[in-house]
Amino acid sequence: MPGRTWFSALIVCVLALSGSLPAVAANAALPVDMLQQYLDDAVASGAPGIVLAVSDHGDQWAGVAGYSSIEHRQELRIEDSFPVFSVTKTFTAVAALQLVEEGVLSLDDRLGELLPATNQPAAYDQIPYVRQITIRELLNHTSGIYDYGNSMEYLLATVGNGADFSREWQDEDIFSYAHADRNAPAGEPGSVVSYSSTGYRLLGLVIEAIENKPLAKVLEERIVVPLGLSSTYLPSYENWRAADVTGYIKVNDEMRQMGIAGDFPAARNDLVNATQGLRSRQGMNRGEDGAVSTAASLMKFATALFEGRLLSDAMLDEMLSADWDQSVQNGRQFGLGVHLVTDGTRRWALMFGNGAGGEALVGRELNSGLTFVALTNVFGAGVTDRILESFQSLALESIGSYTAAGASAIERQHAWHDFCPEY
């Protein structure tokens, strides 16, 4: 396949299997064994394992390659669960927007009116402007609150050499990174766009105070159970359960010089096993990160969300709306809990997640309905970035032009339900 990256080949293969490409596509005539070889080549190029699922107009297909554990040579399965990191934010956003629809919360409510109910003033009171910030500003990352994930001090405390992998982080520990005497805010509320996991942690606190129950239970009752997402959960220190896959970090010279990931055992070449400290890192989250899910569950969630089964049409429009001037960072707009990217005539709603041990990406092209989920158990290899680039660069105008005649011309290896019985 000269002239084509392995990621492009991977996407073409899966789209061909899904019936989303016309039968005349170059890869449609290739034998199934060769299509699977493309997936294997993707893993040979550096990723321990990859799951990719695609859905288009009722045609659903999935591909899998590689290992869930390099050390144990455990083959990755399509039903394996992964940490999905900041994709958690979209679940949290849906819960908040449902509360808005129920009239118990408003997008214009200020935290000064809501936070006292959390009974944790010491944890957040020293965050600049915290009582002025609105729910909308938390959702679309215009609160200006410093993102604790950008703190080198936090990074070293969680994955740095000598980090305490048994530490149980508390709210005051996390919020302290956003205190004025430690890190300056990005700006005043509503005046700046700056991604903030700290803001979503505050949003989780608000939801818990309103519902009078842990956020994990809120998400379970409002999203997980109604949609039948049996493999999706938000772990905590009290109810810890790891994902199925082993997570890895691709370490480079810069990381080594910074003293990052040096205590993790070597797995293969430049990959280290990031299992140590997983409970410490993942059990601390409160709506900004930490959920565990599968490709099938995330596909169900995305489909239900964008088809209006979790929010009303009006609220979904609100979620997917953004003022370019007020909600753009690094070329991406922020809706209420999703990233928005315009690519010519195409408009993508995206959910991104990454951290020590993996990356997750969920995408929906809002005009055609094409939806994809990509999960990998390595961080630092650029896997999901390249998958997104491949989807954007492909001739996606053919998506949605699939016909029954085209389907019969493609040898189908696996149906979605063969891999994902929960779907």
Strand residue percentage: 15-25%
Distance between the termini: 34 Å
Instruction: Please tell me what the overall shape is.
Output: globular
User: Can you count the beta strands?
Assistant: 15
Query: Which residue ranges are poorly predicted, with pLDDT under 50 across at least 5 consecutive positions?
Result: 1-35, 394-423
Helical region count?
17
**Classification by helices and strands:** alpha+beta
Strand order of the largest sheet: 3-2-1-14-13-12-11-10-9
Q: Please, what is the average pLDDT?
A: 82
What proportion of the residues is helical, as a percent range?
A: 25-40%
Instruction: Report the radius of gyration as a whole number of Å.
Output: 21 Å
* Major β-sheet profile: 9 strands, antiparallel
